[in-house]
Design goal:
Helix content: 40-55%
Strand content: 15-25%
Number of strands: 13
Order of helices and strands: HEHEEEEEHHEEHHEEHHEEHE
Largest sheet: 6 strands, mixed
Shape: elongated
Number of helices: 9
Mean pLDDT: 85
Structural class: alpha+beta
Low-confidence stretches: none
Radius of gyration: 30 Å
Amino acid sequence: HIVPALIEDTKNIAPANDPTQPVFTIIFDREGYEPAFFARLWNQHRIAIITYRKHVKEMWEVEDFKSIETQVNDTKVIMQICEKQVQLGGHSFREIRKLSDNNHQTSILTTHPTLEQSIVAVQMFSRWTQENFFKYLIQEFDFDKMINYGIEIPDQNKEVVNPAYSRLYQQRKKLVEKRRRLEAQMLEAMENNINQNISETKKWLSKQAILKEKIEDLRVQINQKTEQLSQTSSKIKLADMPEQIRYNRLKTESKMFMNIIKMIAYRAETALFNLIKPYYKNNEKDGRQIIQTILSSNANLQPDYQNNELHVTIHSQATPRANEALKQLCAELSQTETSCPMTNLKLVFN
């Protein structure tokens, strides 16, 4: 749903016919992971992606990583970075890894052919600002609050994950995990049998026999679950689900409408918060509180029809620091020369 809208929005600002440059780049986390989809975006639309790689098994040699200096959110940092070409599902990708101090390797995939390693890493790691955006929005604006509790019937032809399949899959998964633990105990018993005195052999052989019997019993159960899974569809139409467990959903229209209003309000607050950063020393600590106080302050409105202006004079704040921040904010806002809605009066803040 998002990609077609972005293509439409960017159709008039696409770069020149340079096959190495994407129309635009999408950055997201593992939720959207699908290598075939990434390749299709590039091959069909010249859209690049940056995302975390899933299912990383092999570790790269520590000696392959090189130190680079880059900047993350106005702060200079040193990163240990390494890049290699990888094949996933028959498609080639750039894989860039960051080595942390505890030797953990964070893997990033991209289809952007020319973006510098450090920029790829910084763009990926900067996603936390988006997460903080919603974290604050949830805390301060009741973003997840339900507006009403009515239900509506979804499309009955829609396919969803079959609950019966999920239940069988989880049961089989637990059995496999239990068998692996027993196999590890079996290996330990065999090693102990080899390393211990011959007088201990009977005890360890007896333990092995008990473990082997349990492993065999689990093997039979796993095979049964596997057979049941093969006979159960992984997806099911809502209309085919038993009525007592058939899904309904909460009405979404009013919640979406309220969420949009809250996001607009929070984005406005965030914009003002960013404007006072250069003028307010403790901005990160209580900058939002200052903005909220300013927004709830009384103000005088004085139209000047001769000069087509509307003067907005905000009342004094509680501290000199807050007043200084407000003074600078008023100057910044006045420079935008924004008109008051539904009038031709330019807003002047004091």
